[in-house]
Amino acid sequence: xxxxxxxxxxxxxxxxxxxxxxxxxxxxxxxxxxxxxxxxxxxxxxxxxxxxxxxxxxxxxxxxxxxxxxxxxxxxxxxxxxxxxxxxxxxxxxxxxxxxxxxxxxxxxxxxxxxxxxxxxxxxxxxxxxxxxxxxxxxxxxxxxxxxxxxxxxxxxxxxxxxxxxxxxxxxxxxxxxxxxxxxxxxxxxxxxxxxxxxxxxxxxxxxxxxxxxxx
Length: 216
Hints:
The chain is mainly β. It has one domain. The protein has one helix and eleven strands, in the order ββαβββββββββ. It has one helix at about 55-65, and strands spanning about 25-35, 40-50, 75, 80-85, 105-110, 135, 140-145, 150-160, 165-180, 185-200, 205-215. The strands form three sheets. Strands 1, 2, 6, 7, 8 and 11 form a six-stranded antiparallel β-sheet that branches. The longest helix is centred in the N-terminal third of the chain and has 11 residues, at about 55-65. Residues about 1-10 and about 10-15 have low confidence and may be disordered.
């Protein structure tokens, strides 16, 4: 029987990471927490996300410039296909439900260093309880928060290991939606490779937080 995944992930407001982002910088902080079946924290890492890829800026430019359907721009999707994309009120959506690996925070086993032209994870970990699989929870969001110098919000997702064996997560990405003529496409906007990886033992759950931040 498939091990139970927490039905709804809840993202709490987390204190901004002033020491990781420099004044004037816009970026993301990646927080990784592994808990055992009783909820005890076994590992906790906080690091700077260094790997926004080109699709992030291309999709942002499309939205900022209100590119219409009659004059769309090509952007490479997670299948490696160049798609004609126009502006949409639904762009950048990453609120994936339980078990959906097509968008939201995703994890993989690839170790190849990130490049600006990456368009997908190298080796995506599938959803499930079979060997090499993790159970993907839904994606949730922490409300925007700010202090005197920093504004941020959190995107979070749980990954439960019911496979019977240890799974090492080496890469983490954020997949979002883009549109043309009401057709949905999926694009990677961040890919981070974790030095040494992070082991998730059978019965443990990895929680990934991406905190998007702006610092002045």
